[in-house]
Design brief:
The complex is a heterodimer. By secondary structure, chain A is mainly alpha-helical. Chain A has one domain. Helix content of chain A is 74%, strand content 0%. The longest helix of chain A has 36 residues. The radius of gyration of chain A is 22 Å and the shape is globular. In chain B, the strands form 3 sheets. A 6-stranded mixed beta sheet of chain B has the order 5-6-7-3-8-9, with helices on both faces. Chain B is α/β, with parallel strands linked by helices. Among the domains of chain B are: 142 residues, Rossmann fold, CATH 3.40.50; 63 residues, Alpha-Beta Plaits (2-Layer Sandwich). In chain B, helix 2 crosses helix 3, helix 2 runs parallel beside helix 4 and helix 3 crosses helix 4. Classes of the chains: A mainly alpha, B alpha/beta. At the A-B interface, helix 1, helix 2 and helix 4 of A face helix 2, helix 3, helix 4 and helix 5 of B.
């Protein structure tokens, strides 16, 4: 302790302060608070900085290696999509799990004891972050395409609305899978490791069981989304979303609402 | 105001809290005293809805905590100063609390100043000492101007100056009409701070009441150069006594029939010289407390509570 105040504290135990008849916490305020919490830690700032840098960095690949990488709009867009797919889920996971690994749940759930609302706000904030990141990725792609055009390259402008929607959906789905794992596991390290390991494991499994892979291998789903082939595979995509997002998220909500906070 | 009725909780077969009933009035500071593992933290966590009791209820300002629409405006809670995000600055931590409560974020700077952390407000909490985290936790609890404070071991990590500061802050809070419930495992730490004391051991309340009553001496100490004469006088008046060393006697005053005045009159009437007539040193609560601390080492399964 290097400093202590010796001045008398200002009155705080105001008996006339508003009582429990106060209005509840509006959801918009919860969103604002969770947005701050998701972005104002050192880890989050580093991750978001790295995310921006890696998005720009990967964009250089199709620019610098025109002979080995398809010079199409869709191909260009797949590079920021890959950058976002790696780090964005980690940001989303930390949004959920840091409450447990940093034990701030002890404070958070005394600020808003309706725990479902807090988790809902966190999911919404993760989606907002994902949406913002997807827009950022699209802008970087546009910049990359601009540079390519300026250097006189011929590019196949094969970017359809389906591909763009698929790109946005893939970024959102990646984030939601991270959110669901984080909500379920309450542990940053475990959730991050599993979010990388599970898709790989299922991809390997998919090689052996091709008929299964279409339904539950998330990388198959993401490929369909990114290549704009999602309208033809909606049942498979919905099943894998249920397996990777809806079920773990619902289980995580139940666990969070029921658990004791220590 | 905090009220709990018969709060009870077990983990598996181990009872952790048994029939704990508390009542904390506005304008008072209640010390929740017990050795480590006695069930203090579990009780506090049940009061603020972080743990579910098996039986019993608790209310704050007349409502269960989890039904308070905006709880931090009513009750400031600090259960563990180490449970803060290490990667967030002190200012950001306090601003989150202000924003959540819906008070102007400028309040964050006010309370940081109040707890003496202005100079460290932009440092990460990970670089804070335990005492600084304790102060930051206090800032967090005060930011929304609650009427009630619930603090688990708030003196942990504070130096003597910090403890004195905390004492003044809580006194002012209570004097303004606030209600304070704080826990401690050290009697001397709370003795100068609290008005009421609830002593808990192995999950059950073993003593509770105003501090002055609990600390009041239960006996008078008499000294005389003529012990035989005093013994005869006390016996003739049917007053029970215990002879002590150095010609002293102790007389129990708990039933209220025996007072210092009655003893003095008796000595005057019987012409026995008294050289000392005073309340004996009040060791009762401390002895009770030490005996509790000694018994709990046999219950390691409660150590985490």
């Amino acid at each position: 302790m290097t400093s202590t105040t010796t001045t008398r504290p200002v009155p705080t135990g105001n008996a006339q302060a508003p009582g429990p008849a106060l209005p509840g916490i509006p959801f918009g305020r919860l969103l604002r608070v969770e947005w701050d919490k998701a972005t104002n830690t050192r880890a989050a700032r580093w991750l978001l900085g790295l995310l921006a840098a890696s998005t720009v960095g990967l964009m250089l690949a199709p620019l610098l290696a025109p002979s080995s990488i398809d010079q199409t709009y869709t191909s260009y867009l797949s590079f920021p999509a890959a950058a976002l797919a790696i780090l964005l889920p980690v940001v989303a996971i930390l949004t959920l799990t840091s409450e447990w690994s940093q034990r701030t749940a002890l404070t958070t759930f005394t600020q808003e004891p309706r725990r479902t609302r807090v988790i809902t706000a966190k999911v919404a904030v993760s989606l907002l972050l994902a949406g913002a990141a997807a827009v950022f990725g699209a802008l970087i792609t546009a910049a990359g395409l601009g540079v390519a055009a300026a250097t006189g390259r011929e590019l196949d402008a094969n970017l359809t609305a389906g591909v763009l929607v698929g790109y946005l959906l893939s970024v959102l789905l990646n984030v939601l899978m991270g959110v669901a794992l984080g909500a379920l596991l309450h542990n940053s390290a475990a959730a991050i490791v599993l979010s990388f390991a599970l898709p790989t494991a299922f991809a390997l499994l998919g090689l052996a069981l091709k008929s299964w892979a279409d339904w539950i291998d998330p990388s198959t789903t993401l490929t369909w989304l990114l290549q704009g082939q999602w309208p033809g595979h909606m049942p498979q995509i919905l099943v894998s979303v249920a397996v990777w997002v809806a079920i773990p998220l619902a289980a995580g909500l139940v666990r969070t609402v029921r658990c004791e906070i220590t | 105001m905090i009220t709990t009725t018969a709060l009870t909780k077990s983990y598996g077969n181990a009872p952790v809290v048994r029939d704990v009933s508390l009542h904390c009035e506005p304008g008072t500071i209640t010390g929740f005293l017990g050795p480590n593992g006695a069930g203090k933290s579990t009780t506090l966590r049940m009061i603020v809805g972080l743990a579910r009791p098996d039986h019993g209820t608790s209310t704050i300002a007349g409502r269960p905590f989890v039904e308070l629409p905006n709880p931090t405006r009513v009750v400031g809670t600090l259960l563990d100063p180490s449970a803060m995000h290490a990667g967030r600055t002190g200012r950001a931590t306090t601003k989150i609390a202000a924003r959540m409560a819906g008070v102007p974020t400028g309040r964050a700077d006010d309370v940081l100043d109040l707890v003496g952390l202005t100079h460290a407000a932009d440092r990460r909490v990970g670089d804070y000492s335990l005492g600084m985290r304790q102060r930051l936790g206090i800032a967090q609890t005060l930011v929304a101007e609650p009427q009630v404070l619930i603090l688990d071991e708030p003196a942990n990590g504070l130096d003597p100056e910090g403890i004195a500061w905390m004492r003044g802050l809580l006194r002012d809070f209570a004097d303004d009409g606030g209600t304070v419930l704080l826990s401690s495992h050290l009697l001397h730490e709370v003795q100068a701070t609290v008005d009421h004391l609830v002593v808990i051991s192995q999950g059950a309340v073993v003593a509770s009441g105003p501090l002055t009553e609990l600390l009041a001496s239960s006996s008078l100490l008499l000294r005389t150069p003529n012990p035989q004469a005093l013994a005869r006088a006390l016996s003739s008046a049917r007053i029970d006594y215990r002879p002590g060393p150095d010609d002293t006697f102790t007389v129990d005053v708990r039933d209220g029939h025996v007072t210092a005045e009655r003893i003095a009159r008796l000595a005057l009437d019987q012409r026995v010289l008294l050289t000392e007539l005073r309340q004996s040193d009040s060791l009762g609560l401390e002895q009770l407390f030490f005996s509790l601390t000694a018994t709990t080492t046999a219950h390691p399964q409660e150590a985490a509570a």
